[in-house]
Design a protein that fits this description.
single chain; 360 residues; alpha/beta; Rossmann fold; 3 domains; 9-stranded mixed sheet; 3-stranded antiparallel sheet; 13 helices; 12 strands
């Protein structure tokens, strides 16, 4: 059926698409419900299919609303990647309800990367944050091996300051959700190392939430390896439900999913459920001194892959300072603390917080 209305045809017969028209929740639902996504080969064709079914007055209102949203996003420096764009990730197309448009701030070239999702609780324990940091470093080293064709034993910690991946887009990247805790640790470490770093938001793409992550947002926006993405429109009210909805994108765009600390009732568990539905490979970090990893333990019992410090190339053990005091030659705590500080400076120890130290 051809689009008969001249007013509506004019909007979808030009290259000035109202991308935000396709971000409207009831438009997305209509497209999914009627199986229109695979019947079109471009956003133009999809628009024609949708508008053939809509009342003219409603269609005009929605198109004008979409144009206003586009202008708001453009004024914020956002760009648009549609489902039919070559940059749209293929893995994301495979999920049940892929976003029709990705609203982006940053370098859209980041989307060319192969992503590993790293997620976990906002209230992360020190040992989980340390493991997250080391996991990202491990991914960085693996990328360096591929880039430089060198054995990992030749890559020392101080080498990170001399070599980075800032010109290697298309390699392994990190995707997470820009929340506090595990998300922040993963993304801050990745962007500092120059890895492609993708932040999926449960808010409009220009909204910096939580505000306490503003320094990370600034790094993401100023790096050519950083990209922020949302499927929400400027007027969409973000709430508790928008963050689980976001999680399906985080796991959908990734080849594998690492859950670094997962309470049984948490957003991280929502990500795990999405990953299971999407048939992703799941890895669980579990350690006795984590605050709350009940969800992670359940996933391990169900057959998820365990990940431990040796898997990250780390050799050593965790001790509480009281254990170290009992084993040491020192009579006073302050003398032990001074020695531990010296060991940290020389790379022999790492203060994990809460009185715990990793001794290499």
């Amino acid at each position: 059926m051809e689009l008969q209305d001249p007013y509506l045809f004019r909007h979808f017969n030009s290259k000035q698409y109202a991308y935000s028209f396709f971000g409207k929740s009831n438009v997305r639902t209509f497209i999914y419900k009627n199986g229109l996504l695979d019947k079109a080969k471009s956003l133009h064709e999809l628009g024609e299919l949708v508008l053939n079914y809509l009342d003219r007055k409603i269609a005009q209102e929605w198109i004008l609303e979409g144009e206003r949203c586009d202008e708001i996003y453009k004024s914020k420096g956002a760009t648009f990647v549609s489902y039919y764009d070559p940059l749209y990730p293929n893995l994301l197309k495979e999920i049940y309800d892929p976003p029709l448009v990705l609203f982006c701030i940053g370098s859209i070239e980041v989307l060319k990367s192969d992503f590993i999702a790293i997620v976990g609780t906002r209230k992360a324990s020190p040992v989980s944050l340390f493991a997250t940091n080391q996991l990202v470093h491990s991914i960085f080293i693996d990328s360096l091996k591929n880039q430089l064709n060198r054995d990992s034993t030749c890559i020392q910690q101080d080498f990170f300051h001399e070599v980075n991946l800032k010109d290697s887009l298309g390699g392994k990247g990190i995707v997470s959700g820009m929340a506090l805790g595990i998300d922040r640790e993963a993304m801050a470490t990745a962007i500092d190392l120059g890895l492609p770093t993708l932040g999926i938001l449960g808010t409009p793409v220009y909204t910096e939430y939580p505000y306490s992550n503003r320094s990370l947002y600034a790094k993401m926006k100023n790096s050519k390896n950083g990209l922020l993405v949302s499927e929400l429109l400027p007027y969409d009210h973000y709430a508790k439900w928008t963050f689980p909805m976001r999680n399906r994108i985080i796991t959908g765009i990734a080849k594998s999913v690492y859950l670094m600390e997962t309470p049984a009732q948490s957003g991280a568990m929502s990500s795990a459920n999405n990953a299971i539905e999407q048939n992703k490979e799941i890895f669980i970090f579990d350690h006795p001194i984590q605050f709350n990893n009940d969800g992670g333990k359940n996933l391990l019992e169900d057959g998820a892959n365990p990940i431990q410090f040796p898997d990250l190339g780390i050799r050593g053990n965790i001790f509480h300072i009281t254990e170290l005091m009992n084993q040491s030659k020192y009579q006073l705590y302050q003398d032990l603390v001074v020695q531990l500080k010296l060991d940290e400076n020389s790379g022999k120890a790492k203060n994990l917080g809460g009185g715990y130290y990793f001794i290499f």
